[in-house]
Design goal:
With 149 residues, the chain is α+β, with helices and mostly antiparallel strands. It contains three helices and nine strands; from the N terminus they run E-E-E-E-H-E-E-E-H-E-E-H. The strands form two sheets. Strands 1, 2, 3, 4, 5, 6 and 7 form a seven-stranded mixed β-sheet that branches. Strands 8-9 form a two-stranded antiparallel ribbon. A hairpin with a 2-residue loop joins strand 1 and strand 2. The longest helix is centred in the middle third of the chain and has 13 residues, at 49-61. The chain is globular and about 40 Å long.
Length: 149
Amino acid sequence: MARHPVQVAVAILHQDGQYLMQLRDDTPGILYPKCWAFFGGHLEGTEDPETGLRRELMEEIGYAPPEVTLFRQWGDEQVHRFVYHGPLTVPLEALQLNEGWDLGLLSPEDIRRGDRYSAVAQQTCSLGEVHQKLLLDFLEIHPHLGIPT
């Protein structure tokens, strides 16, 4: 019997040439433990990807972006990702981290290097491989969003 891939929706949220990411918990058994990754998650039931993304962002950080645009669909036989992008219009202090170990704005240099320091974890942590690849592709297509305003 063919197994359908899990469907997830994730967000590339940008502000002043930087990109919001979460530092995932250091918990065995989760995907990308102790790595910087996108906010977002699994779609529920017959939920469409944008609705699922907006629900996940409210659950994870209490944020409702004014707009999101589909950047890419990407995946493999296990996971199908709907990757959206949109502006982060509030300061980090206005977000409520409800999932993950830390959050932060990563610069294009952090993304290219593939890591960022977390004051909460008190160490430098890597970007999840998939997340880094998608961000590098995004920066190549949207270079103007990697420039601070």
